[in-house]
Amino acid sequence: MNTARIIIFTLILGLFGQLYAYAGQPSKLVAKEGYYQFPFFDTQTPVWSYNDQIPGPLIRSKVGTTLVIDFVNGLKEPSSIHWHGLRIENAMDGVPGVTQDPVGPGENFIYRLKLDDAGTFWYHPHFNSSEQLERGLKGVFIVEEAEKQPWSRELVWLMDDWLLQKDGSIYPQFNTGRDLRHDGRWGNVPTINGLFRPEILVKPGERVRLRLINGANARVFSPQIEGLSANVIAVDGRPVTQIFALDRFVLSPGNRIDLDITIPKSAGGRTYPVNGRFTRKPFLLATLKVAQSEPVKPPDFTPPTEASFIPAQMFENVQVAKTWDLNAVRGGKYGIGWTLNMKLWPDADKADYPLGVPRKVIFKNSSSRLHPMHIHGVFFRVLERNGRKSVESFTRDTVLVGPKESVTIGFVPEHPGIWLTHCHIQSHAEAGMMTTIEVKE
Ligand code: C2O
Ligand code: CU
User: Fold this and answer.
1) What is the secondary structure of 305-345 as a DSSP string?
2) Which of 137, 204, 261, 389 is found 20 to 30 A from 17 (Cα to Cα)?
C-alpha cells in the first residue's frame, strides 16, 4: 500500500470508529460459559459471562454517537441484552416477547444504540434473568458528556453479590420458594467489579467521580464511605436537581449514583472503608486507600445540575392515571406469584399512554416485601410517598417501594413503543411482577 492509500484507509477506519466503535469499544458481546477465580476457592467457579469477563466489558461512549453492538449468544439457552436506563429506540430495548424475539443459542442480534443521554447505565440479559444475571452476565455502560469535566480520577464500581456454595460453585437453584417468599435471592459474597473487598488506590487531593451501580439480582445496597464526605451528583444516570450529601442513600437493584469525592490533602496513608449499610449488620465492600504521596491540587469546578428536567410542578394538575397494587398470590409457575393489580405476567394489567402527555402513576405495595420498580425507556420523578408530598431532588428509572409503602411518580412518555415495567428483584419479576406501558404517537 502506498502512503496515500494508507491515509485514506486510516481515515475510513476513523469514520467507522466514530460511528461503530468509540475508542476501542467492544463491538461484539459474546455470552458464553466460562470460569472465574474467586479468592476463597482452589477451583474456578463456573460462570456465564460476556467476552469471558466478570463483570462484562465496560462500554464507554460519547453522547450523540450511535453504537452498534453485535450480540452473539453462545449459551445453551435463549438470551437478549437490555440496556438499563438508556432511552433508545424501542426495537433495541432487548425484551424478548415484547421488543424482539429471544436470541437463540448460536444466534446473534445487532443492537443499534443511539445515545441521546449521558450518564451511568448498565446492561444485562432480559431472558431467564434470575439465572442469567446471577451467573455473571452484566456490565457497565457509560455515556460521556459532550463537555469533559476535569476530574482527577474516575472510578466505576459495579456492586454485586453471589450465592456461592462451599465447593465454589454458584448455588444452582433459582426462583426458590425462599427467594419468592422473601426479597429474592441475596448472596453471601458481595463484590465490586467481581472482586471481594478490593483495595482501591487514590492520591491525596484527588477529586474522584465514583460511579456506583447496583447490578445484584436482589440485594439492596446502601454504601457509606466511612470518614469521608461524598456528594451525590447524579442518580440513575442523570444529573441531580440539587447536589446533596451521601447519607444512607438506598441503591436497589438497577439503581446507580455518581459521587463527587475529594480526598483530603492530608489523608496520605489513610484508608477509608466502604460499607454496605442497608442490612442491620454492615459489611465491608471495598477500601479506599490513599497513597503516601505528595498531594495533588483538587480541580475546582461545579458538576452540572438539571433543574428543568421533568420538574415536579409539571404534575400539579395531573390526575393519577393508574395505581398498580403490588402483592403476592398463590399459584403461577412457581407456586407463588407476584402481582400487579392481581395479575401475573404475561396476563398483565397494562397501561397505554399518548406521547408527550405528563402522567402520574402510583405503585402501592400491599405486601411486606421490597419491590424496586423499574420502567424502561423513561425517567420519572418521585412526587409523593404514602400520599404525602415528598418530591425528590433527582429523577430515576428505578424506585424502591418498601413494605406497605406507596410511591407516586410523574413522567412524560417521550418515546413511542412498548416499555416493560417491572420489579427489578429478578425472581419477583419472573414470578409475574411485570407489565408494560405502551406509548403511542
Ligand atoms: Cu435492568 Cu427490565 O431491567
Ligand atoms: Cu419485587
Assistant:
1) --TTSS-GGGGTTPPEEEEEEEEEEE-STTSEEEEETTB-T
2) 137
Residues 6+ apart with CB under 8 A from 6: none
What atom of ligand 1 comes closest to residue 398's alpha carbon? 1
**pLDDT at position 425 over 50:** yes
Query: What spatial distance separates the first Cα and last Cα of the chain, rounded to whole Å?
Result: 52
Q: Relative to the alpha carbon of 373, which ligand is closest?
A: 2
Pocket of ligand 1 (CB under 6 A): 82, 84, 124, 126, 254, 374, 376, 420, 422, 424
- Angstrom distance (rounded) from CA 19 to CA 389: 45
DSSP output for 246-285: -SS--B-TT-EEEEEEE--TT-TT-EEEEEE-SSSS-EEE
CA distance 369 to 347: 22
What is the predicted pLDDT for the residue at 67?
Answer: 95
DSSP string, 127-142: SSHHHHTTTT--EEEE
C-alpha 425 to ligand 2 mean position (Å)? 5
Cell 412457581 belongs to which residue?
Answer: 334
Specify the pairing of strand 320-330 against strand 359-365. parallel
Place of cell 403490588: 326
pLDDT > 90: what percent of the chain?
Answer: 93
0.90 exceeded by pTM: yes
pLDDT, tens only, 127-147: 999 999 999 999 999 999 999
Which pairing describes strands 434-440 and 417-423: parallel, antiparallel, or unpaired?
Answer: antiparallel
pLDDT digits (tens, 9 = 90+) for 355-410: 999 999 999 999 999 999 999 999 999 999 999 999 999 999 999 999 999 999 99
Cross-strand partners of 437:
351, 419
Q: 41: Cβ–Cβ under 8 A, 6 or more apart, which residues?
A: 167, 168
